[in-house]
Amino acid sequence: MxxxxxxxxxxxxxxAKIADDIPGEDVIRVxxxxxxxxxxxxxxxxxxxxxxxxxxxxxxxxxxxxxxxxRVTCLVSVKPAVTNFYSVFHGGAIAxxxxxxxxxxxRTLVAKDKELFLGELSISYLxxxxxxxxxxxxxxxxxxxxxxxxxxxxxxxxxTGRLVYTARATFYHTPVAKL
Length: 179
Description:
Domain Thioesterase: 88-156
Oligomer: single chain
InterPro entries: ACOT13 (IPR039298), HotDog_dom_sf (IPR029069), Thioestr_dom (IPR006683)
CATH topology of the largest domain: Thiol Ester Dehydrase, Chain A
Structural class: alpha+beta
Number of domains: 2
Pfam families: 4HBT (PF03061)
CATH class of the largest domain: Alpha Beta
CATH architecture of the largest domain: Roll
Protein name: Thioesterase domain-containing protein
GO molecular function, one term: fatty acyl-CoA hydrolase activity
Largest sheet: 6 strands, antiparallel
Strand order of the largest sheet: 1-2-4-5-6-3
């Protein structure tokens, strides 16, 4: 439970366990931050997860530019819906787009009778892309074997060509179950 000396009025934090060694003003500052980013706000009906809004948002950002065996290049528009508090591309959206583009790249070489399972995704955030910028994502197969594929991605600003993010995805191949 919360410390008796701190009055927590936020309903989302009423069950929070707060360590004794954290000053009360720090707790209040964290709770104000969480309230500011909308942690307790209800999700509008149009963004219900059952409608697969996630895929719609990610698909809406992408425009394929080039597809060849072992390589996929896409244009990504940094729309306001996927920016963070600082008006730059949100790290979670970068990860989601990285997964989608790398899976598309792996699919250029992996047989259709195999499912792909994302086993690892690592991303280096070298710089940032601001709201309404366009970014070129270039995915290429590093290795593709019988049981796994490794994909490397480079994210470069369209306007300057500056490298802003790199990513590496490992996909495991599993045979599709025949029921």
